[in-house]
């Protein structure tokens, strides 16, 4: 999707909404898994997404001073896909969705960075790089989930013994 025709103000609102949604998903996953190492990774991802929301809110305030931030109820899935957890979703499927979401966020921030001034550009480039690191974390967990079927449901010592 081409973001060049969407206002930066709207794009920041979408980004903040996406970070809120990502925080909610990672918190839900952290509470759902039994593997303590995996739980901790999801807690870290949730924490980072919460911090991204704060960074973006501060960026919005810096750019639009007294204007009110408006968050969309829904975000175009072609732009920033959400993770949908269904009762039938396998853990690997959830991770695959999360990877796609992080990759889209990485690209979104990189494209948005090209539309702002230099001092704001670094913030968005930073967020793009962090989203890439989230993708890499999820990718490594995805590979493990494919190899060890009960990876998320077991304490780590029970998975490998």
Structural description of this entry:
This protein is mostly helical and 161 residues long. It has a single domain (8-68, 89-160), classed as Up-down Bundle (Ferritin), CATH 1.20.1260.10. It is 70% helix and 0% strand. It has five helices and no strands. Helix 1 packs antiparallel against helix 2 (36-64) and helix 2 (36-64) runs antiparallel to helix 4. The model has no long low-confidence stretch (mean pLDDT 92).
SSE blueprint and pairings:
Layout lengths: L7 H25 L3 H29 L26 H23 L4 H30 L8 H5 L1
Helix pairs in contact: 1-2, 2-4, 3-4
Quick take:
By secondary structure, the protein is mainly alpha-helical.
Which CATH C-level class is it? Mainly Alpha
Radius of gyration: 17 Å
Strand % is: under 5%
Profile the largest sheet.
Answer: none
Unreliably modeled segments: none
CATH superfamily caption: Ferritin, core subunit, four-helix bundle
Helix-strand string: HHHHH
Relevant terms:
70% helix; Ferritin; mainly alpha; 161 residues
């Amino acid at each position: 999707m081409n973001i060049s025709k969407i206002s930066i103000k709207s794009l920041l609102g979408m980004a903040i909404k996406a970070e809120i949604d990502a925080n909610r998903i990672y918190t839900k996953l952290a509470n759902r898994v039994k593997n303590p190492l995996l739980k901790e990774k999801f807690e870290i991802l949730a924490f980072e997404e919460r911090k991204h929301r704060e960074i973006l809110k501060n960026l919005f305030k810096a750019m639009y001073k007294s204007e009110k931030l408006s968050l969309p109820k829904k975000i175009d899935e072609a732009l920033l896909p959400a993770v949908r957890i269904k009762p039938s979703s396998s853990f690997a499927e959830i991770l695959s969705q999360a990877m796609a979401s992080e990759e889209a966020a990485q690209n979104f921030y990189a494209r948005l960075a090209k539309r702002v001034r230099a001092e704001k550009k670094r913030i968005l480039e930073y967020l793009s790089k962090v989203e890439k690191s989230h993708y890499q974390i999820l990718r490594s967990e995805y590979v493990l989930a494919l190899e060890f079927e009960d990876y998320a449901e077991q304490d780590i010592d029970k998975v490998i013994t």
